[in-house]
Amino acid sequence: MMATLLTHSLKDRYAALQAERERNWAPAQLQANADQRRILTERFDPTVVAQPGTLLPPLSFQEVDGGVIDLDGLTANGPALFMFFRFAGCPACNIALPYYAETLWPALAERGIPLVALSPQQPDRLRDIKQRHSLPFHVATDADNGFARILGISFQPDHRPSPPPPGWIGEVTGTHSWELPQPAILLVGQGRDVQWLHVSPDWLDRPESTDILKHIG
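RESULT FIELD:
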């Protein structure tokens, strides 16, 4: 099974996830999911997110295995790649992160380019996704979506019941907020400048590793 998965594109893996949902989800749940992804895609304005050349502040992040990593250290010898995802239990993220570990990380490691996966989820809860997939790269917390806000990629779902129901997103992440990052790939150069930012408002439509590598010199 694993050998077969290694040949599958990310698009193929998401198609399999969607097919499974169509078999098992109630029609209303399926429609709500599709509607939110459609709304975010229609609403997305690429001109309002951080553009190449944007200078970033000297941010730091708590790694789930302990310790702190920071932009200056990560980019001291060249560019670093950041991958924004929602939270450890997100089904789409549990497909994307191991896919990138299999197909993107080896090429980055060969070039000496750090890879950091960022989520607003608290470190003790976020650790689960790194351990589950034995991810070989950094997984860290973007506290309070601070970095995502700077980049202009955070959002809140349109349906936000009040009071929030048990198990709502703020309870899962430990942030007590509906806010999440849109999945995104960010290349940061030496001097903390944005070199490339790709945002996926539809979280089931993320870039293939080959497409990401085309933007990395």
